Amino acid sequence: MSRSDSEKKSIRNGDVQRDDFDRNAPSSSSSSSSPMKKSGLMKLSSYVLALRPWSLSGSLMPTLLGSTIAYKYLDNEEQEFNYITLLLTIFTVVTVHGAGNVVNTYFDYVKGIDNRKSDDRILVDHILTKDEVVSLGAYLYLAGCIGFILLASISPAKMEHLALVYFGGLSSSFLYTGGIGFKYIALGDVIILILFGPISVLFAFMSQTGRCEWATIYYAIPLALNTEAISHSNNTRDSESDKKVGIVTLAILIGHTASHVLYAFLLFTPYIMFIVLTLKYSKWFILPLITLPGAFKIEKQFRSNDINSVPKKTAKLNLFFGCLYVLACSLVHTLPYITKR
Length: 341
Known about the structure:
Blueprint: H1 3-24, H2 28-50, H3 57-73, H4 83-110, H5 130-154, H6 159-175, H7 188-209, H8 216-237, H9 239-244, H10 250-280, H11 292-303, H12 310-331
C-alpha cells in the first residue's frame, strides 16, 4: 500500500472515531450546566452551614413557648390567636439569631480565635469568603427587619413597645461578638441568658396579645438555663484556644472544675423546677423529664473531658426538652401565674 493510501485510510479511521465520540459525548450545554447546578447547591449548603442550624433551637423554643403562653392567655372570644403572627414571629426571631451566628463567625475569625481545631470552620477552611459572610449577615438582619415591620403591622402590640424588645434583641445579637464584643469580656453568658430567655418569650407573647406580662419571665428560666448550657459548654471546650488569643470568658475565669459544676447546674436545675411544678400544679409538667437520661449521658461526657461534641448534643437535648416543655404548657388547663384575659 502506498503512503498516500495509508494516510487516507488513517484519516478515514480518525473521522469515524471522532464521529463516534461526538455521538456518545454529552452536549456542551448539559456538561456545563451540571457543574453549575452542583456548585449552586454546594454554595447554598455552605450558607446554611454558616447559620449553625443546630443552634437555632435556642431561639425557636422560647418563641414557641411565648406563643403557647399567649394562646392560653387568649382563651376567650374577644381576641383570637393569630397563626400568621406566629409564623412572622418565628421568622423574625430565627433570622436575627442566624445573623448573630454569622457575626460571631466573622469576628471569631478576624480576631484569630477560630483555627483548624475549631468547630466553626466556615472561614478557616475558606468555605465562604469574609465578604460572603458579611453579606449573609447583612441580608439576614434585613430579612429580620422586614419580618418585624410585617409583624408590627398586624400585631395588637404598640409599635414602640414591640420595637423596644425587638431592637434590644437585635443589638444584643450583634454586640455579642461585634462592637463591644460581650463574649470577649466574660459577659457573653449574661447576653445568652437574657436574649434566649426573657426577651424571646416576651417578644412572642407581646406580638400575640399586645400586652407585657412579666410572669412570662418565670417560664423563660428553664429554657434560658438550658440554652446557656450550650454556650457554656462551647466556651469550656474552646477555653485553651481562647486563652491564647487573649480573650476572657467565664469558663476561663472559673477553670474547668468549676465550669463542670456550672454546666451541671445549668443542665439539671430546669428538671428540678419541673418536678416542683409537677407536684404543685399539674402532672403534665413531668413531660420534659423524659429527656433526663440524655442529660445524664451528656454530663458524664463533659466530666470525662471529651467535650468536643457536647455543645451540639446539648443543643439537640435543648430541642427535645423545649418541645416537651411547650407541649406541657399547652396541655395544662391553667398556667400558674398567668391569668386568662
